[in-house]
Write a sequence for this structure.
């Protein structure tokens, strides 16, 4: 579709806004919400955060009750898939209360999937309860299997905790997908082994290109490894067959004949995936970002707190969806070796 059609968003009355579907000006229906429940993290992955991050004052955060209300408003407006992320979602105090409470939307059938993206460090503690709450699969971020490199990437993380978390998740019956950022000179040689390891445990692996988000104290050009190159190298060793499936998101998948597993590529820099984008993101302060690669932001905390019914909120959501941009603005090259988007990935959770 080329341009905005007449606003599909204007609800007939404020009450209609509570349940009207969210369709953006380019005809894309929003059915996937990613919620960053905290900007804090127990790691400092060098491509994600600077070492001395300033985190939000706790008083600025939405309470867990407010996050629940916000998610529930989106579910009423057609969100079917909800992903909790961060920062590190499992470091938010009492986050399982939120998961448990949101699981009522799975029981009612309003939500078809509740999931999370985690660095895995706290997973051993929470895996069983996540499964009890109806979470079926999760994404765990892990860029290397080498403890020393893991510490280098995360600045102080211990890989054993993550591996323990992954095993606890598998033992609890959760499906696990590994996400790894492809990093020039760091894990590029290890990617075939990482894939064999993941597939050997029946876990999918998705590779991600570094995205230029937030000041991190070093240039992106040193980290950026195009996945087109990674794929070409893997294709010399493995038989990769494109899979037709699409999640409406940025990942493209192949099957790997030799391992029997699935490999995903998230290529914001070399492939544009915006046409089929079905997702929006909210931060832990209630800011709605309708595109990961834009500075656009709408405050939902104010309408959320302004009244006990959700009409102002639903109206604010509709207005924000009406401004969803057509596509992202990411560029990394020698002339543009600085953030395209000033917020860090940990604000929106990827
Ligand atoms: N802490 C959790 C984790 O690491 O899975 C959730 C939040 S983290 C921001 C979500 C994902 O974003 C992780 O897979 C991480 O590797 C990825 N990520 C962070 N910064 C990135 C960047 N600049 N470019 C590409 N991916 C990034
Ligand atoms: Fe933390 Fe995840 Fe960012 Fe790493 S990628 S610093 S684990 S939020």
């Amino acid at each position: 579709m080329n341009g905005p059609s007449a606003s599909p968003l204007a609800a007939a009355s404020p009450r209609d806004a509570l349940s009207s579907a969210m369709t953006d000006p380019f005809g894309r229906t929003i059915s996937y919400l990613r919620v960053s429940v905290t900007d804090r993290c127990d790691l400092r992955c060098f491509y994600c955060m600077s070492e001395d991050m300033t985190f939000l004052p706790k008083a600025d955060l939405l309470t867990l009750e407010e996050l629940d209300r916000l998610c529930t408003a989106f579910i009423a407006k057609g969100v079917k898939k909800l992903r909790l992320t961060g920062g590190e979602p499992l470091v938010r105090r009492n986050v399982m209360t939120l998961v448990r409470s949101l699981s009522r939307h799975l029981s009612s059938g309003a939500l078809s999937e509740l999931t999370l993206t985690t660095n895995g460090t706290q997973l051993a503690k929470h895996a069983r309860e996540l499964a009890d709450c109806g979470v079926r699969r999760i994404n765990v971020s892990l860029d290397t299997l080498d403890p020393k490199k893991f510490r280098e990437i995360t600045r102080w993380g211990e890989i054993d905790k993550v591996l323990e978390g992954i095993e606890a998740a598998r033992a609890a019956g959760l499906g696990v997908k590994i996400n790894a950022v492809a990093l020039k000179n760091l894990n590029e040689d290890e990617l075939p082994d990482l894939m064999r390891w993941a597939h050997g445990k029946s876990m999918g692996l998705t590779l991600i290109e570094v995205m230029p988000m937030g000041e991190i104290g070093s240039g992106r050009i040193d980290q950026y490894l195009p996945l087109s190159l990674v794929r070409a190298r893997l294709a010399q060793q493995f038989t990769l067959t494109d899979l037709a499936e699409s999640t409406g998101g940025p990942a493209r998948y192949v099957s790997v004949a030799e391992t029997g597993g699935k490999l995903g590529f998230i290529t914001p820099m070399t492939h544009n995936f915006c046409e089929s984008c079905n997702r929006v993101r909210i931060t832990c302060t209630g800011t709605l970002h309708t595109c990961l690669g834009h500075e656009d932001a709408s405050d939902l905390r104010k309408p959320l707190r302004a009244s006990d019914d959700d009409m102002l909120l639903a109206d604010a959501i509709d207005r924000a969806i009406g401004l969803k941009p057509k596509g992202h603005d990411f560029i990394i090259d020698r002339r543009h070796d600085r953030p395209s988007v000033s917020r860090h990935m940990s604000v929106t959770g990827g």
Q: What stands out?
A: The chain has one domain: 16-348.
